[in-house]
Q: What sequence folds into this?
């Protein structure tokens, strides 16, 4: 069971040597108790205490690494079931499925389509990070050539292959990229585990039901292999959801270490051919505990909502999401278009930019550095003031924009005089209180020729 | 060793709220397990799917939605088609045209539309106002009055107008009342507290705790829903045990991902498919966190979400 900071402190050498990076042994103990540091960071812990502690303080869910270089991803390592308790640490990753049953043309077309969705959203790269390469049992050579082709993309591969010979041959050509061999089950786990260990890759384990999955994982752990992910896909959508949720809940809430691994949910199996159902489930399993979600297609229609959702769900609840300060021209705005300024809180940015786009009026949206806080909060904290706004405009806007009109949020109407005195030559216009009123406001400005 | 199941059993449940009259009713809420956790215990009722239409008819609707309603010329005919949509459990009429900053239709004109729709269909009905507090106080009071006996859900009473809307819908005309708050567990609870103090029966309240499209600050929606369900079930908080209804269509169809035309963003592909995708994914996320009902508008979204719910029951 989890130990408290005090219990851990009693076992430390109490030297306050600072070698672990903490000012005192007490501080170190508290961090270990929270799971923020590993007990091995203390060089003076006795072996006895170490053994006792590493068992008790080991995280409930293992952190598994896959891929290499720029395509290395961390899975698992979660400590909570809900994002409001603490941050979710490892984002859900998405894998597009390929199968050795497909024709070469189909495969090439799919890989080509997959390349197209790769974009940036608030400073984060968005693309399906993985490819799921399924073996349909139709010849090892065919599979190996597919795996070779897939490996050439540089994406992390998940080999869906329960056939030991095919798996062995496939690993030969792709093991350097640290793929996942998703192929162990109750009948072949010994052989598969050996293959995965020898190739130094993560092993995916599945079971006909949750009990068989539990038994198989235990058996593989006995063989000494703890580099696993669990394929929680079952025969139906309902059972898949049940297994995926129960596996995560058992590991985090009921400290069932056997289930303390990341999961794979294969939508290509449970909603085959149904693009919209796959999207519904994509969203459901991003929310509820899919570490890797396999789907047949990741076009922009799938990507735009799900990457937005993922970015939202996996943010630190204590740290607001920020957008990069700067000038964002909207609706074809140029240097002569009016400026509208607000803060860099991502939510504010999205609401305001969305409404401005709907108005259709060309405008330069100027995002200030306000510490990622909302308008009133940053104003109250002195981070969105006459000084900061005028400084930002002088340094970043005046040489780029010729218009000398700026619209400020209605909630900080009080800043009008201050800004006008500090930004000579600028006319300050006060916007309405709420973003939803911007469409009408902007259209009225345009109609009255005040731009 | 086989897996040791530890079902999360709660000694509390979400209240069941029935809307509709006669033999066409729908029950929202009633569950005592977390969303779709059928492995912990039987889920009573299961989440429901509503179809949204507005008093603006087909104006401004996406082409594929228009195609579904082809041939429907009056609001009554539109309502009939909406009610017959595959997967629909109830109908939601949103009186968007009442917005003083928009068309500013008169209360009388809107009430005529409400009557026309109500007369055309016998399915359970939800009526949503125009979001303007002053207009809604008058409009929704009138809605509650003319639909007496239909047992409709009137949306929404807010902090600013709960006295007018709550008193009319919940007390005078015994309808069900939607309590709308802005994505915050404390505000949601506070509104339920003051509404019940006003005399509205706690069993007549359905919460709309706010929503957003995925990608647009949706993390607040997730955490608000998660925390409300946790408080309602594990702490038996009676003032948070009302079922939750979440309007999805009105949030998702006007974000960039659904609005950008194919000329503006050629690489994004079909605008219609993007719109449906935003609606489906937002609805699924909302249900996963604990909405007891979602309001959608595209036939494809209604069919898919309804099927997903059936699959998970």
A:
């Amino acid at each position: 069971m989890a130990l408290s900071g005090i219990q851990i402190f009693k076992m430390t050498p109490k030297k306050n040597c600072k070698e672990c990076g903490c000012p005192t042994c007490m501080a170190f103990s508290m961090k270990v108790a929270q799971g923020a540091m590993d007990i091995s960071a203390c060089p003076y812990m006795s072996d006895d205490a170490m053994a006792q502690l590493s068992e008790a303080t080991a995280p409930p869910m293992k952190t598994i690494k896959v891929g290499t270089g720029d395509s290395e991803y961390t899975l698992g390592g979660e400590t909570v079931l809900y994002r409001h308790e603490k941050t979710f640490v490892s984002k859900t990753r998405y894998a597009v499925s390929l199968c050795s049953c497909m024709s070469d043309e189909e495969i090439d077309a799919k890989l080509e389509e997959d390349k197209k969705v790769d974009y940036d959203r608030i400073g984060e790269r968005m693309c399906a990070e993985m490819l799921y390469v399924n073996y349909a049992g139709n010849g090892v050579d065919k599979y190996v050539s597919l795996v070779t082709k897939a490996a050439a993309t540089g994406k992390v591969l998940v080999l869906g292959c329960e056939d030991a010979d095919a798996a062995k041959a496939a690993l030969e050509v792709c093991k350097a990229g640290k793929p996942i061999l998703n192929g162990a089950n109750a009948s072949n786990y010994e052989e598969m585990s050996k293959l995965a260990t020898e190739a130094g890759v993560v092993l995916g384990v599945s079971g006909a039901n949750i009990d068989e999955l539990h038994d198989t994982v235990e058996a593989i752990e006995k063989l000494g292999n703890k580099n696993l992910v669990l394929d929680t896909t079952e025969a139906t959508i309902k059972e898949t959801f049940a297994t995926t949720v129960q596996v995560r809940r058992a590991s985090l809430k009921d400290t069932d270490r056997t289930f303390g691994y990341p999961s794979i949910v294969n939508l290509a199996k449970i909603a085959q051919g149904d693009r919209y159902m796959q999207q519904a489930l994509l969203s459901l399993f991003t929310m509820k505990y899919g570490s890797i979600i396999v789907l047949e297609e990741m076009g922009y229609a799938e990507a735009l909502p799900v990457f937005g959702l993922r970015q939202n769900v996996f943010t630190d609840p204590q740290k607001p999401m920020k957008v990069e300060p700067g000038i964002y021209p909207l609706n074809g705005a140029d240097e002569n278009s009016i400026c509208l300024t607000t803060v860099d809180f991502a939510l504010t940015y999205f609401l305001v930019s969305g409404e401005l786009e709907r108005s259709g009026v060309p405008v330069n949206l100027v995002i200030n550095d306000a510490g990622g806080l909302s308008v009133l909060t940053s104003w109250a904290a002195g981070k969105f003031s006459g000084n900061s706004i005028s400084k930002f405009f002088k340094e970043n806007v005046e040489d780029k924009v010729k218009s000398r009109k700026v619209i400020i949020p209605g909630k900080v109407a009080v800043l009008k005089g201050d800004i006008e005195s500090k930004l000579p030559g600028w006319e300050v216009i006060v916007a309405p209180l709420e973003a939803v009123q911007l469409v009408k406001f902007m259209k009225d400005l345009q109609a009255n020729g005040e731009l | 060793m086989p897996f040791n199941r530890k079902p999360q059993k709660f000694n509390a449940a979400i209240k069941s709220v029935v809307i509709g009259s006669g033999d066409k009713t729908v029950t929202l809420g009633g569950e005592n397990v977390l969303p779709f956790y059928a492995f912990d215990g039987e889920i009573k009722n299961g989440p429901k799917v509503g179809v949204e239409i507005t008093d603006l008819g087909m104006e401004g609707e996406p082409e594929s939605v228009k195609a579904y309603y082809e041939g429907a010329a009056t609001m009554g005919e539109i309502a009939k088609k909406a009610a017959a949509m595959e997967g629909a459990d109830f109908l939601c009429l949103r009186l968007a045209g009442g917005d003083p900053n928009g068309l500013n239709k008169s209360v009388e004109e809107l009430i005529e539309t409400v009557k026309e729709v109500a007369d055309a269909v016998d399915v359970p009905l939800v009526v949503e106002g125009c979001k303007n507090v002053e207009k809604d106080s008058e409009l929704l009071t009138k809605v509650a009055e003319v639909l007496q006996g239909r047992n409709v859900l009137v949306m929404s009473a807010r902090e600013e107008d709960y006295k007018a809307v709550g008193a009319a819908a919940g007390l005078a005309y015994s309808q069900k009342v939607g309590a709308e708050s802005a994505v915050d567990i404390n505000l949601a609870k506070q509104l339920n507290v003051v509404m019940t103090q006003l005399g509205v029966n706690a069993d007549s309240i359905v919460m709309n705790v706010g929503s957003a499209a995925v990608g647009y600050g949706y993390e607040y929606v997730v955490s608000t829903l998660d925390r409300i369900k946790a408080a309602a079930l594990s702490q038996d908080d009676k003032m948070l045990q009302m079922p939750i209804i979440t309007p999805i269509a009105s949030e998702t169809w006007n974000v960039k991902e659904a609005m950008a035309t194919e000329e503006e963003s050629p690489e994004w592909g079909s605008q219609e498919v993007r719109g449906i995708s935003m609606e489906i994914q937002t609805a699924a996320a909302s249900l996963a966190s604990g909405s007891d009902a979602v309001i959608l508008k595209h036939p494809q979204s209604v069919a898919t979400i309804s099927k997903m719910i059936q699959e998970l029951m």
